[in-house]
Structures are given as structure tokens and as C-alpha cells.
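Aim 2 progress update. The chain analyzed this quarter is reproduced below.
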Amino acid sequence: MLNEKILKRLQKAGYKIIGKNKHSAVKLCLWTRRSIRTGEKEFCYKQKFYGDIGIKSHGCLQMTPCFPFCTLRCAFCWRDTSITYPKWIGKTDEPEEIIEKSIKAQRELLSGLGGVSHSKKHLKEAMSPSNAAISLAGEPTFYEKLSQLIQVFHKRNMKTFLVTNGTFPERLESLEILPTQLYISLCSNSKEMMKKTQKPLISDAWENLNKTLELFPSLKTRRVIRLTLVKNLNMSEPEKYAKLIERALPDFIEVKAGMAVGFSRLQNRMKYEDMASHEEIKHFSKKIANSLGYKIKDEKRDSRVVLLTKN
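Predicted C-alpha cells:
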């Protein structure tokens, strides 16, 4: 799947592809760097929103067990969607190997921060990650040993945040071990919008997403619906989003602006003028909150994101 030319391009962009079968990857998050450099004076919105369960930006391992495999090619995705493939190809690495090599790769990436101004305490803590964001690229439910992967992370006393696009409801339903926090990316409010915004590579993506929304309330973990919104693309008719979210009964809703960064900008899929301002995101969030009986609990202006919870 990933030839030498692609691997070199990804390496240049900051990715470390790991494992014998090269279907997993790690990349340092911008906020992990900032937290280490500033001694936690700067941190991501996840730490601000979910610090109550111990989420730390400098302790975050951003990884994926299925780098090139996804059922969507979202217009706003900051990953390289030109290499996205909708079916699993090749053999799979074991969860223990993926995690060991992920942490090793993270430490190698972190070592580069030792040469710039930073907090020694936070860099040392970052070498032993406290939480894993299983969301770097691809659709994680493609990985057949996802339950075991989550279990191994938990045995290491690491929190897990799993982000899915919801196109494999049967795989979510079959998970024996659930993550600490489970996300569904809800980035379209109709089948037509999904075709335009998320460019499905499978014919039943919209139908499967709706099955996942119906399944969501039965999954006994912390549950989040995340909206990534782009002006003149999918940032319209908040009441339609509200009707879909109502079926999922999430604990939290994150409403965030899509950002013209990474490959979304390099591949001319997003421009800076497509990004919604924080004020626009907050206005859209209020309309969703009012439709559902939720309330704004928190916000982070520099990330253009708002958190909603039940009243």
C-alpha cells in the first residue's frame, strides 16, 4: 500500500510509520509540543474540556492502527486522502507490537524537543504517555483487533479516545472493550451533503452512519458527537444536525471549525477563507443546543471549538 515514495513524503510531514506490515502510524500533535515547551501553560481543547479524567496534552499519544484505510475522503481532512483505500490489504500486526512501537516512535519524535526551550518535567512525563488518541488517520474500526488494542492501552493505565466515522456499526457493536471516550464524527446532515463533503468510497456510508447513531446510546462509555464544519460546505441547517444527534443521546457534543492545515491545504481541498470563525461556530452551536435542550459548557477560542452538554 505505502511505497517508498509515499513513505518519504509522510516522513517529511512528521509521521512515523510503524510495524512489520506498516499499517500503523504516530505523529506528534502541535499541542503536545506546545504543552512541553510552555510547561503546560498552553494545551489543547481536550485537556480543557476533559481534564476531569486526566487528559493531558503533553501526555497524548496520537496514533492509528490503520493508516491508509478509510471509507471516506473528507474534503476538510488534514491527512493525505490520495492514499486512502476502502478495504484492508495485507496482514495485521499484533496490538502489543503496535503499542510498543508507537511509544518508541513517540519518544524518538519527542527527543527533538530537547534542543529547544522546554519544560524538563513535562518532556520527561511525555516519554510515558498517559492517554492515546486513536484518531491520527484512517478509520480505526477497520483494525480487527481493536478491542485488544484498547485493552492493552488500559492495562498500561492509559486513557483511550477513539474516533470513528460511524460507517461500520457492526464492528462498534462487537467491541468487547470500549474506549474511555468514544467519538462519532458527524460531518453531514443529509446523504447529499455527505456525498459532497465526505466523498464516500462505499455505497452505504450514510445508511451505516445512521445505524451507528441508533446504536450509540447502548454503548456504555463516555460518548461524544463531533461536528467539523466548513463554511459553504457543511455548515448549514443546524436543526438537521440536531435531529440526527437526538437519536444518539451523546454525553457531549463538540462543534469545531475545519482548519485549512496539512494536506487539506496542500491538496487544495480547503482554503483559509473556508474556515469558520469562533464566533460563527459558537452561533451555530447555540442553535443546535437550543434544538436539543443542551447547553454550552465550555469553549476554546484558539481552536475554534465549543463543547455542549445536556442541561
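The CA atoms of residues 1 and 89 lie 7 Å apart. DSSP finds twelve helices and ten strands in the chain. These observations will guide the mutagenesis experiments scheduled for the next reporting period.
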